[in-house]
Design goal:
alpha/beta, Rossmann fold
């Protein structure tokens, strides 16, 4: 039996039906999904939980309210965490995202 985890990331031009992948070893599986918005995130989280994901990590772009809704959607069968950086790290990431045009979409 593998430990299964998932990662959901907000990406402005994502197509959640296409922009996904899975990495795995004999003991671990990581499923990654890119979504544009909260509705797609909730749908992806629910689907991943139904497929047996044990732990779900969300990118820093999720608000506390978003996290709560996702946690409710997956129930008690899947843990939900959020990747958050410190102030300087968040600033570096935000500047790189701005250069890539994320906030223009």
């Amino acid at each position: 039996m593998k430990f299964k985890s998932g990662l959901i990331v907000h990406v402005p031009d994502a197509n959640p039906n296409q922009d996904k992948t899975e990495l795995k070893t004999e003991t671990y599986s990581l499923e990654v999904r890119m979504v544009q918005n909260q509705k797609q995130a909730v749908d992806a989280a629910r689907e991943m939980a139904d497929q047996g994901v044990d732990s779900l990590m969300l990118c820093p772009g999720f608000t506390n309210e978003d996290v709560a809704k996702i946690s409710q959607a997956v129930g008690k069968k899947t843990g939900v965490t959020v990747a958050r950086g410190d102030g300087p790290s968040s600033k570096i990431a935000q500047e790189a995202m701005a250069k890539a045009g994320w906030f223009n979409k």
